[in-house]
Amino acid sequence: MKFDLLAKDSGSKARAGEITTAHGKIETPIFMPVGTIGTVKGVHQRELKEEINPDIILGNTYHLYLRPQMEVLKKAGGLHKFMNWDRNILTDSGGYQVYSLSANRKIKEEGVKFKSHIDGSLHFFTPENVMDVQRTIGADIIMAFDECTPYPCDYRYAKRSMHMTHRWLDRCMDRFKNTPPLYGYEQSLFPIVQGSTYKDLREQSAEYIAKAGAEGNAIGGLSVGEPAEEMYAMTEVVTAILPEDKPRYLMGVGTPINILENIALGVDMFDCVMPTRNARNGMLFTAHGTINIKNRKWYDDFSTIDEMGMTWVDTEYSKAYLKHLFSVNEMLGKQIATIHNLGFYLWLTREARKHIIAGDFREWKDKMVKQMDKRL
Fold it and tell me: Second label for 305, Cα 20 to 30 Å away, from 192, 206, 320, 363?
């Protein structure tokens, strides 16, 4: 993997860059649509490529490990071939899913024992076998196994967890170095900074991760319920320490406003289920604020979904029609809303990139944050 830093904004820490892997270029800042189980929910790969047009999408180790299972993915030649996607894929390590299964898992130094959410069967993740699973999935960028602490989190627990995440990282890196990629192209391993919302722990963790010398670095354990100001404060602490010549990935973030504010703090990569999940519940993100398409006010509003036309659905259908689809629980409504929201998120990060290169990102960002912070 290669990372080129192409431009910096003078009024903030925002950067524009380019990551190159075997599956092509990733222009940063970038939003990665979440394709948890080998599909961005409700969207054909053709629409994903031609309309939403992301350079990279995200898959999930925990879910793919359980279904379709590694034997199927290995026979298929990896996730790219299985889902017919010839661009970049990043897989998260399953640490967040294990965190969210708090009632059904036990964390020990060796790894994590957990019950499948599907059938209750018992499984065991270790830093080593998580590397093996991600080798089999074949993503271009894979994540180290970590523990994502909850919020709020006791200081002693956060500290103990952070040190275990660091020890797990060492084991991940050893296993990664001693196993070959399976499908004829290289993979890159990103470690994850932890430390909850404690500044001293975040500093310690960022320094440990920076010294690991990986090709890119991630910030985890945020967007788990803490106020946005705390998220920004921790991101600022960490980006000041992580190396400038490596991409920085803030995991699981967030709203359009969260994304712009974190770009301003020096983050390059984002993922979040929000655009797809909220779309299925009738929430549309736009440059002028959010729309709840289920509200009665759209009942006879025949204007297009979004006059900015970021994807074809925006000008093909009216708000009244989309509201109708939701009111009769027609799956097409969820698909239309999903394509719109993902198209908007990709437009937003690409527009941010343009303004970073042009040198006026800060002014544009401040204007956009005000505009988007409205209910329409």
Answer: 363
Q: Which residue has the tokens 């025949």?
A: 302
Angle between helices 155-177 and 127-137 (to 10 degrees): 50
Percent helix, strand, coil in the chain (nearest 5)?
45, 20, 35
Judged against a pLDDT cut of 90, whether residue 103 lies above it is answered with no
Q: Which residues contact 270 (CB under 8 A, 6 or more apart)?
A: 29, 30, 31, 32, 249, 250, 253, 254, 259, 262, 349
326 Cβ contact list (under 8 Å, min separation 6): 282, 293, 294, 333, 334
Residue 271 falls in the annotated catalytic set: yes
- Region 73-80: mean pLDDT is 98
Residues in contact with 64: Cβ distance below 8 Å, sequence separation at least 6, in sequence order = 37, 38, 73, 79, 91, 133, 137
The residue with tokens 């959010």 is: 290
Among the options 92, 140, 146, 306, which is catalytic? 92
Question: Mean pLDDT across the stretch 9-31?
Answer: 98
How far, rounded to the nearest angstrom, does the alpha carbon of residue 346 sit from its chain's CA centroid? 12
User: How many angstroms separate the Cα of 37 from the Cα of each of 4, 43, 64, 68, 131?
Assistant: 31, 13, 6, 8, 18
d(CA 190, CA 23): 17
- 197 Cβ contact partners less than 8 Å away, ≥ 6 residues apart: 151, 152, 153, 226, 230, 233, 234
Closest CA to 86 of 19, 1, 22: 22
Q: Is 245 an active-site residue?
A: no
Distance separating alpha carbons of residues 216 and 199, to the nearest angstrom: 22
pLDDT recorded at residue 101: 72
Q: pLDDT by residue (tens digit) across 30-52?
A: 999 999 999 999 999 999 999 99
The residue type found at 103 is: A
- Taking all residues of the chain, what is their mean pLDDT, rounded to a whole number? 96
Give, as one character, the DSSP assignment of residue 344.
H
